[in-house]
Amino acid sequence: MNRKSLSVSLYLNYFVHGLGLIIITQNMQALSTHWQTPIATVSYVVSGVGIGRLLAYFLLGSLSDRFGRKLFVNLGMLSYLIFFVGMAFVTNIQLAYGLAILAGIANSALDAGTYTTFIEMGGNRGSANVLLKAFVSVGEFLLPLMVATVDAQRWWYGWTFLIAAAILLVNIVLLNRQTFPARNHDDATMAAASHRLSKRRRLIASVGLAGYGYTSMAIMILYTQWISLFVSQTFQFNQVVAHLLLSLYSIGSISGVGVIFLLLRRGVSETRLLVAMNTGSLLALVVVSYSPLTWLSMLGALAFGFTAAGGIMQVGLNLFIKLYPHVKGRVTGVYFTFGSIASFTVPLITGWLSQQSVAAAMRFDLVVGAAGLLLVALTAWVLKPARSLTSQRQQINQIDARIVKLLNQRFDTVTAIGAIKAAEQLPVLDQNRETVVLQRVADQSHTGAHTPYLQAIYQAIMANSRAYQAQLHRKDEEHD
Ligand SMILES: O=C(O)C(=O)C[C@]1(C(=O)O)C=C[C@@H](O)C=C1
Is the separation of the CB atoms in 275 and 327 below 8 Å? Predict the structure, then answer.
């Protein structure tokens, strides 16, 4: 497996995904002329993407645990390819809606195959998932420039779609030359950590993180949808500042990705990062929601983008995946399904609130932010390594259960060896083999101070193996 080449291909997909996310809305005018429909109908087609995601996330996530990540990355790329080529030529609205649904499915398939792969690459690759966000942002940044160029040159609007398709086509070839890491490759420490957690704690953390799948998405959608209108109506900010608050949010977001990436690389704890970032985003949101000072609002917007949109959603997902290392795909599916429900419901809720006032719609983001903070704080609290006597003993109980099971297996093997020795009339004691076993214990022990104690335990185990073999041997002779 060539990690670098595989990573580049996976990142490139997310650049194209960034183009795909806004390609319909950025070509709204051209498509409405081409389809001979009102703009509202084009906007209706966009909702198909959300439906596709909602339908596909859970299913594709679970299936990727069974059939491998590579298949689903390919499925995502092929679906996106059909979407881009089809959208460039389609004239029928029903067909366009079908293609939009396919784009949603493509998004789900890519996520099911990619987030899981980065975790399965091992090491500290969770940080790579945060970087995916940056590639999406670059795509979203470049697409409007591409559309503007095509428009200014009076070229056919379909070219931007075909450029995206061409990048995908090249990447399909590149990606399929790579081998993926072993599926459900169980990072031993990850599995051990998730094992140590009591069922109740794991359940609470799961509820917290699934809920965070919703709030982390909702907090961003709500801000981007309402901020400009809100500040111009509530604080009479001029149009330039109103739109600048969105651009500053994007700049904050991209710098946030860089910082979170580096912090994760340095081994900063994910739970701490989640609590700190969510505290920061709630504070920034308070500033933006209540400050009538332009400069302060601008600072708030930057800080909000940094803390709420700098890949912290991906950090939540990484943590969630580590709780269930055996079903990474399913967990990814669940998390993003909650995110999709947010993209679906936030416009509905805030649309209803805006009938009261735009400020009510915008300030609802504070409720979302507070809920998010509460959820990550709860998660961090239950995942905190416990140090009380009772909890340490619970830990020992769980470790002992595993040791006893392994000792049973060892004794089964000792029985088999005993039978072979009896048949071949070999002595029960094999001093050379015992020396080898003790040496292997010393080599495998990761704490030198433990080693003589582990060897003493093994001497006792082997003495008991011998006693067991001798007793079996006696029984056999009695029978004969
Ligand atoms: O390897 C063997 O010959 C065994 O019977 C197993 C075992 C052990 O428990 O590891 C037990 C007794 C022998 O003296 C050496 C090793």
Answer: no
Instruction: Say if residue 41 is in the same domain as residue 113.
Output: yes
How confident is the model over 31-82, as pLDDT tens digits?
999 999 998 888 889 889 999 999 999 999 999 999 999 999 999 999 999 9
CA 376 to chain centre: 15
| Residue the block writes with tokens 């965070």 | 212
Number of domains in the chain: 3
Please tell me whether residues 366 and 425 are part of one structural domain. no
* Shortest-distance atom of ligand 1 to CA 434: 15
Distance (Å) from CA 463 to ligand 1 centroid: 9
Q: Cα–chain-centroid distance for residue 204?
A: 18
* Binding site membership of 438 for ligand 1 (Cβ less than 6 Å): no
Task: Output the furthest CA–CA distance in the chain (Å, rounded).
Answer: 101
417 lines ligand 1 (CB under 6 A): yes
How far, in Å, from the CA of 465 to the mean position of ligand 1? 7
ipTM at complex level: 0.93
Please give the number of the atom of ligand 1 that sits closest to the Cα of 462. 9
Tell me what pLDDT residue 246 has: 87
The model's pTM is 0.74
* Judgement on whether residues 191 and 136 belong to the same structural domain of the protein: no
Residue pair 79/172 in contact (Cβ under 8 Å)? The answer is no
Q: Are residues 225 and 162 in the same domain?
A: no
- 290-315, pLDDT tens digit by residue? 999 999 999 999 999 999 999 999 99
Distance of CA 348 from the midpoint of ligand 1 (Å) = 70
What is the mean pLDDT of the segment spanning 5-12?
Answer: 96
Is the CB of residue 151 below 6 angstroms from any atom belonging to ligand 1?
no
End of a domain among 128, 156, 183?
A: 183
Q: Give the sign of the dihedral formed by CA 276, CA 279, CA 281, CA 287.
A: negative
The four Cα atoms 303, 304, 310, 314 give a dihedral, to 10 degrees, of: 140
Confidence of residue 137 (pLDDT cuts 50, 70, 90): confident
Ligand 1 centroid to residue 396 C-alpha, Å = 27
For 157, the domain range is 1-183
Nearest CA to ligand 1 atom 3: 430
Q: Ligand 1 within 6 A of 433 CB? A: yes
